């Protein structure tokens, strides 16, 4: 069995510090150990930030294997394993176990078993992005059917899941994206997923454009912010009185600057959300299992589809990270293993 992983021994840019290295998973499994073969593992912005050393999640030691989520098939189990069988499809329960690897040995409690029929490309991405969209739409504001939400990073993986879940729950979405040469194609794509409005960062600054939209869907009670900087401030300007902005990312690398009147006159709430913290507190809680099974079910019914996904090989990692760093890719890159 040839086994390889993308590992790093120091923090830095992924293209520079990652190396494809041979690994040797244990041959004889003890007690509750489980040997899995990874099928697919995505590359999320947080994985890149972790390797750069600027993310709160740090590897326990070096060398560390990159990747935080993925789906794997169980190849062998130790003598005391009760809840997992050979052939099961599993995802890692804790964060940062290292998923850019062909094989991994962890213990029984480190895996959650999914339905065998789940689409592997969806399962590989289930723990971070769809869950983040789900929790942010559910946990901060009691949204009623017909309410509206504004979000920036509308074409991010989280944004794409938020659009689809909101549509299923009859909530209107105003989605902000960065301008680009093929902007109309992107608008069409997001609308095909259920987006009500797709606007560029420049367009949400135009009073006449926003007045027209808000007269139809009302002011949003919830804003989801993964960009920060000017775009976050512009989204806040349209938030309903008493509304909440949930910040969950900072893709522009600029701080969130808030109008003073938001606090005093509009009673806006500003909170943050980190899926890693939520998942740690709910590792195998009924709430988490229910969410994962609901999301899988929606995916199997084709009501919740994955963002545009490009499957790549471990061998091509240097070019892949170079492309991702340039932005505007509209796609999620996923390592797939044979
Ligand atoms: N807090 C949490 O628990 C949690 C969970 C999941 C994700 N996140 C965060 O959410 C964000 C999106 O994650 P994802 O996996 O959905 O990302 P993704 O699919 O890789 O998409 C990245 C998004 O960021 C936008 N972007 C990149 N650079 C930008 C810039 N300089 N200014 C404005 N927008 C920019 C991209 O737009 P273009 O197409 O225009 O490049 C795209 O919409 C990341 O910050 C990630 O860390 C947080």
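-> sequence recovered:
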């Amino acid at each position: 069995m040839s086994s390889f992983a993308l590992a790093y021994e120091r923090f830095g840019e992924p293209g520079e510090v990652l190396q494809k290295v041979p690994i040797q998973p244990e041959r004889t499994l003890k007690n509750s150990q489980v040997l899995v073969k990874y099928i697919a593992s995505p590359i999320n912005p947080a994985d890149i930030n972790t390797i750069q050393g600027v993310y709160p999640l740090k590897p326990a030691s070096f060398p560390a294997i990159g990747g935080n989520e993925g789906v794997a098939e169980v190849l062998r189990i130790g003598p005391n394993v009760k809840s997992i069988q050979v052939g099961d499809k599993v995802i890692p329960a804790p964060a940062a176990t290292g998923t850019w690897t062909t094989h991994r040995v962890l213990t029984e409690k480190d895996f959650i078993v999914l339905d065998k029929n789940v689409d592997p490309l969806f399962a590989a991405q289930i723990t971070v992005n769809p869950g983040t969209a789900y929790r942010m739409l559910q946990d901060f504001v009691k949204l009623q059917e017909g309410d509206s939400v504004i979000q920036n990073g509308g074409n991010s993986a989280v944004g794409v899941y938020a659009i689809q879940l909101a549509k299923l729950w009859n909530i209107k979405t105003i989605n902000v994206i960065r301008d680009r040469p093929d902007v109309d194609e992107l608008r069409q794509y997001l609308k095909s997923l259920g987006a009500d409005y797709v606007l560029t960062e420049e367009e949400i600054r135009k009073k006449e454009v926003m007045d027209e939209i808000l007269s139809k869907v009302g002011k949003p009670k919830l804003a989801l912010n993964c960009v920060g900087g000017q775009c976050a401030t512009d989204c806040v300007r349209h938030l309903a009185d008493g509304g909440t902005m949930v910040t969950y990312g900072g893709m522009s690398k600029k701080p969130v600057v808030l109008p003073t009147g938001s606090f005093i006159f509009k009673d806006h709430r500003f909170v943050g959300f980190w899926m890693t913290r939520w998942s740690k507190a709910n590792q195998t809680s009924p709430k988490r299992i229910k969410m994962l099974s609901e999301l899988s079910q929606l995916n199997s019914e084709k009501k919740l589809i994955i963002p545009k996904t490009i499957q790549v090989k471990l061998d091509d990692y240097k070019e892949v990270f170079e492309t991702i760093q340039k932005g505007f890719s509209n796609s999620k890159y996923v390592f797939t293993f044979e």
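The chain has a mean pLDDT of 96.
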